[in-house]
Amino acid sequence: MPIVVERAAVLFVAAVDGLVSPVEDDDTDPDRSDQIPVSVRHGDGEATLLVNRGAMLRDALFAADAETGADTDLSPYARATERVNCGGRGLCATCGVRVIDGPEASHWHDRLADRFGYPRLSCRIRVTEPMTVALVTDKRVWGGRERDE
Question: Which residues constitute the signal peptide according to the record (predicted)?
């Protein structure tokens, strides 16, 4: 039985020990008619979010991360950038995710990023259809350099 937690723009179907309770295809619950399934691959597993149609992916990931606490890291941010970011305005490039399966990029910048294998900004992805995304595992401020020792 999935644990469904409602908050902001997302219903979260919790993953337990890396196992995800799938969203049933024959689920006719009228409260879920505008919910879009989004599979999120993260460190050790995969979680499924039911996101309100039209919500920004960044907001859904952020809300789901707040619901799960330390159990599952679903934030698109690194520890430092979680507090210091542009708030979803598409300016800081710290909320990148890799779109594995989902809508094609419509903006030229996103198409170019896809072509060269760069992540897309989750704050610029509106959830309109089912998708699978992978969180960037190397979460750090882009452009940062390692210190020479």
Answer: none
The pTM of the whole model exceeds 0.85: no
Paired tokens of 73: 């890291």
Name the β-bridge partners of 49: 12, 38
**Is residue 143 in a domain?**
no
3-state helix, strand, coil in the chain (%, to 5): 15, 30, 55
Q: Is residue 78 part of a domain?
A: yes
Specify whether the CB–CB gap between 40 and 49 falls below 8 A: yes
Q: What average pLDDT does the chain have?
A: 74
Q: Residue 79: which domain range?
A: 4-21+31-135
State the maximum Cα–Cα separation within the chain, in Å, rounded to a whole number.
59
Whether the Cβ atoms of residue 39 and residue 61 lie closer than 8 Å to each other: no
The per-residue b/e assignment along 56-82, b for 16 or more CB within 10 angstroms, e otherwise, is bbbbbbbbbbebbeeebbbbbbbeebe
β-strand partners of 121: 96
How far apart CA 44 and CA 95 sit, in angstroms, is 19
Domain count, the chain: 1
Is 145 inside a domain boundary? Answer: no
